[in-house]
């Protein structure tokens, strides 16, 4: 079997089984473990699989439909959802910036990156570079108080003209939301 064929075979197995041992792959393909390592290297390099002790595991796509918010358990709306990438490379998903900010206050020191989507143009942005509009008179149909992310301050200012509210950096918005949640003693379970 050609290396490319073996690689395709390994990929189809890993998609079905999610984890595979190197020794198993070597037996199934009837090739040496050295060859298996060589076959899987490109798959690891391009991020399709992750190396584990003695084997490989499927690297799940970051955004999958049907996943839940780690804070409130709501389903994820791709438009509003936020991801926190932690320093150990694990990713936590949130329904909206509100939940991400509540969580962030707890895992601040383990946070490597926060990814959200610009509310107007729907592009992926780093939350720490974004501005957040709080208390706007618009219902996003998610958690309240809500925080709406914008990549551009100009966009955010324009939006604010129409819908009111106040603009914050991520850190300040997170702090503000945390404060409001405490004052209102709402349903959030801690
Ligand atoms: Zn949530
Ligand atoms: Zn939410």
Automatic annotation (TrEMBL):
Origin superkingdom: Bacteria
Keyword Transcription: yes
Coiled coil spans: none
Domain HTH deoR-type: 3-58
One Gene Ontology term of the molecular function aspect: DNA-binding transcription factor activity
Keywords of this entry: Transcription, Transcription regulation
InterPro entries in UniProt: DeoR_HTH, N2O_reductase_NosL, WH-like_DNA-bd_sf, WH_DNA-bd_sf
Protein name (record): HTH-type transcriptional repressor
Source organism per UniProt: Bacillus sonorensis L12
């Amino acid at each position: 079997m050609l290396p490319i064929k073996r690689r395709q075979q390994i990929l189809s197995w890993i998609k079905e089984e999610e984890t595979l041992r190197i020794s198993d792959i070597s037996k199934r393909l009837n090739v040496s473990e050295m060859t298996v390592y060589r076959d899987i290297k490109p798959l690891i390099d391009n991020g399709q699989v992750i190396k584990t002790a003695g084997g490989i595991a499927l690297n799940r796509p970051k955004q999958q439909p049907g996943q839940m918010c780690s804070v409130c358990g709501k389903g994820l709306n791709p438009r509003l959802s936020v991801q926190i990438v932690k320093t150990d490379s694990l990713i936590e998903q949130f329904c909206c910036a509100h939940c991400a900010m509540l969580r962030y206050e707890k895992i601040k020191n383990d946070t490597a990156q926060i990814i959200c989507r610009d509310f107007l143009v729907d592009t992926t942005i780093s939350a720490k570079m974004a501005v957040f509009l709080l208390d706007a008179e618009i219902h996003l149909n998610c958690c309240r108080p809500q925080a709406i992310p914008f990549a551009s301050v100009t966009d955010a200012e324009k939006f604010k003209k129409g819908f009111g509210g106040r603009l914050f950096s991520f850190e300040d918005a997170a702090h503000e939301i945390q404060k409001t949640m405490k004052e209102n003693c709402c349903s959030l379970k801690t």
